[in-house]
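Bug #77: duplicate submission created two jobs. Keeping one. Sequence:
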Amino acid sequence: MEDGDLYVNKVAIEEALFGVLEEECRLEASAGKPATKQGVYLLLRSLLLRFSEAWFQESVKKLQQKRDARSGRLDPDGYFHLPGRAELALEVQRKVLPQFGFQGSKEGSSDMIRHCSAFLGDKDVAQMFDAINKKLGMSSAARQRFRKLAGSFEDAHTRQPYETPCSLK
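Kept job's structure:
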């Protein structure tokens, strides 16, 4: 498993190298919710890059410190539940989700997670989920717990074919 910061750098390099493909993927995304692995990957990558911004990371650290100070100890649950995180993440999601056919709301965020979970069987998508959750302040154990929970939504959606002109392979 890759370190979250290394993964962000890898994504940034891919963005520079595959910028032309990104426009084709954005056209797919503008048509509604992503229907392919590449569309889901682009959505998750957009979220990861924004969650990696310094202001966001500082805010997550403050939420963790506040939670720890209130309880008098480090979170034994690995910050699976972190008060204030959903509202903080929604600041980013309000801007990103509508570009991919989802409402920029709490309901849109839940819908996006359920939708993207159908692609968790793909290594790249699974790694992106983990990298995002690391940026959201979750420990490794909490990230695995989240992926398991999200994987339970997988059956709710039909997998779509991966072949598109947006292939990053």
